[in-house]
């Protein structure tokens, strides 16, 4: 058993059952997150009938008592209420986050005993057990490096195995057990490279990839993380969802990286927090209902708060790039202290008008071009028709992504020529932007593949295809099983804006998420029938790739197909490329 496994298994702390209260597992917070910008530990409580005030008071009292007994007088306690529950958190020293999980459990043990009117275990014995774990976990060398890096204004990234200072070409990494003394570090050689954090419900992957294309056009070795891949230059380090802090550290420790664009998804923010507080730019593309009900994010306002966590990852003087066309983004930006660079499809949007009046940078679409205002004048523009992913403006969601990417890269100091080249050379292909509005041709028909999976993203794709003439229209739909019945029905109804003549409903067995086989396809089909679709126009497929075979067999010259593929994408791409 290695050191981390020993720490994780060091103590077992149980608590009394409190009526109608469910407690999720305690997790470490390693960086700025939804609750605050401190490291520590958090647990999520879910309840409907429990006395919310009593829970908060008991937590505050017993968590404070535990922290003080551990000698953590400078650490803090918080209770964040949400619809149907609360997040209970404590902060802790950076080198004692496993110990912090036990401290949080001990605090809840005593709070639960009070609420349930049962006898807790002896407090002093529990504290001594936690102190024994503290002694195993503490790392004075890490704390010394952490304080020195902070005083010098350079980023330090920590995980269970390694510690690094600086970013990319100006970074150095050491094993966690072999850290140097601060005076042994070559500090002048270590600094932060230009870095942007990009989040949102939809469009964040496309925006991140566009930024990477612009960075490459500027001659930089780009570090990139997305929900699909982690990449440095042309070298794919790994495939999979790397939109959390693990992917960020992988890129920022690569000594080839000269500039980095990191996609930041909701899950990583809520589970662990951000990897860094040293970004020069952060962006929020939009906020729409998706993945609600986890980690205390129950409403759209909660989700907005979670997405705006990226503002906590900005270094002093950093710029927040925001979508002025999204009401939830505009509302969440109220009271933000950081400088905002707005972007909009409307040159007369209030935020754009105000930015121009105040001499602040902004970007907007105007008379068929993307225009970038530098704070003094309309510095330059690029015709929308020169940006392939916009379909000459029909794909409005991609026009927004191009505006966001341009604003981000200009805020990072990249030249106009690189922005122009990156936007004009980036295409909606499986190589440039896999799973996002990829077009194929087959037997005289046009086929579009997209990963859209929530009503907001599905609507954007359907609207982009609305004006494309066609003889017949074919739609393939699938949904993951962890969505509610209502969410699945909403997604299906939105997709019907495509006005399909035929619907293929595909099962995705690797996304059942607790549902039975055929349950999700049956919900989609029932929704379609309820809106007037003839049952004879609905075809079932066992997998997305089987659905694509059905589509290819039916495609005739002049037809248009939209295939919403959430799984089996590599095989689907291979099938379409060879068709």
Give me some keywords for this one:
single chain; 579 residues; alpha/beta; UDP-N-acetylmuramoyl-L-alanine:D-glutamate ligase; 4 domains; 11-stranded mixed beta sheet; 18 helices; 35% helix; 22% strand; globular
Question: How does this structure look, described?
Answer:
With 579 residues, the protein is an alpha/beta fold. The chain has 4 domains: 3-137, no CATH class; 140-189, no CATH class; 195-425, UDP-N-acetylmuramoyl-L-alanine:D-glutamate ligase (3-Layer(aba) Sandwich), CATH 3.40.1190; 438-577, Mur ligase, C-terminal domain (Protein-Tyrosine Phosphatase, Chain A). The chain is built from 18 helices and 25 strands. The strands form 4 sheets. The chain has an 11-stranded mixed beta sheet with strand order 12-11-10-13-9-14-15-16-17-18-19, sandwiched between helices. Strand 10 (222-225) and strand 11 (229-232) form a beta hairpin. Helix 2 (52-69) packs across helix 3 (97-116), helix 14 (455-465) packs parallel to helix 15 and helix 15 (485-495) packs across helix 16. The protein is globular, with a radius of gyration of 25 Å.
Helix content: 25-40%
- Average pLDDT, all residues: 93
CATH topology of the largest domain: UDP-N-acetylmuramoyl-L-alanine:D-glutamate ligase
Text of the CATH class of the largest domain = Alpha Beta
- Biggest beta-sheet profile: 11 strands, mixed
Structural class: alpha/beta
Distance between the termini: 52 Å
